[in-house]
Amino acid sequence: MRSQNFLSPILLVLLALIGHVYARRVIPVLGDITLKITGADGSDIRSETLNSPPRISKPLTLDSASKLTLTVPVKDDTGKALSLQHLFLGARNEKTNDEKTLVCASKGTGVFTCELDQSTLDKLHPGPHTLMLYAGSVDTDPLAHTLGAAQFSIAGPSTKGSSDWDVFEPLPEITHKFRPADIMPNKVLSLTFSGLVLAPWLLLLGSYVVLGANFTNLFSSSVSFISGSAFMGSLSLCVLLYYVFWVKLNLFQLLGYGSLLGIITAILGRQALVARAALRSARVPRSVKTE
User: For 101-131, how does the pLDDT look when each residue is reduced to its tens digit (9 = 90+)?
Assistant: First the structure.
């Protein structure tokens, strides 16, 4: 019961905050827009003010040398200047129904400027278009407003250069170059180093033959056979560990496994020596022992 009484005020506060956020969402209103068209020499071709709600009464005519400037004030429903995140000018082709949008620059709180000049007109197709204004922000409702008609007497989009219009164009083809095959060393050199690696083992076996190593005592008794086989097996595991270290282990893993295997090998070696000493003691005559 206490937990429910504690959570109820928190839920009420959260609901009040959510309601406050949604209550603050306003609908942006476009003010009186100043429209100006200038020629290539800067002469004034057309200037007028579009009263709110703004609407172009006579279709605009623009060529590649013309420049259209729109100064757009944005207000809320109380007439106060409204700060927006984005304002876009859209131009929709009446024939293809293809629409391009241009980001309008902010000139202060609630004032935006949209400019169409040669660099931006190059990305449009000739013919009749409908000009649109799109406004949007996090704390406002979206707005789409139709300004009016415009006739573009231009050559059409160019394949070179860049523009502020969000036009999707094919990018240069990306060719992937795969990793070339590794250059392998000479086979003779590889065999030479392999022989050098195996040379110590050949030298060890040769020394066994020269010194006359005798392995027959390994099978003389069951105790000697078990202890000797275990010791030889541990030595073989040491050799195998070095091979595994060569192909996949790191130095820390080698030291860890090698320490454990070294202790086991030392214990088995001692047992093998004890068994060998017991076997030698059993073969000494009693007369020699008593003396």
Answer: 888 888 888 889 988 887 777 677 788 889 9
Based on the domain organization, do 58 and 148 belong to the same domain? yes
Residue type, 97: N
Contact 24, 11 (CB under 8 A): no
**Residue 32 backbone phi and psi in degrees, to 5:** -75, 120
Q: How is residue 118 written in tokens?
A: 């040669």
Enter the tokens of residue 171.
């990018």
Question: Where in the sequence is the domain holding 279, given as residue range(s)?
Answer: 187-285
Regarding whether 196 and 276 lie in a shared domain, the answer is yes
Give just the sign of the alpha carbon dihedral 216, 221, 224, 227.
positive
Rounded Cα distance between 84 and 87, Å, is 7
pLDDT of 13 strictly over 70: no
Q: What token pair was written down for 79?
A: 């007439």
- Do the domain assignments include residue 171? no
Contact 24, 139 (CB under 8 A): yes
**Distance between CA atoms of 80 and 77, rounded to whole angstroms?**
8
Q: How far is 96 from 166, CA to CA, in rounded Å?
A: 17
Residue whose token pair is 């429910």: 4
- Give the global pTM: 0.47
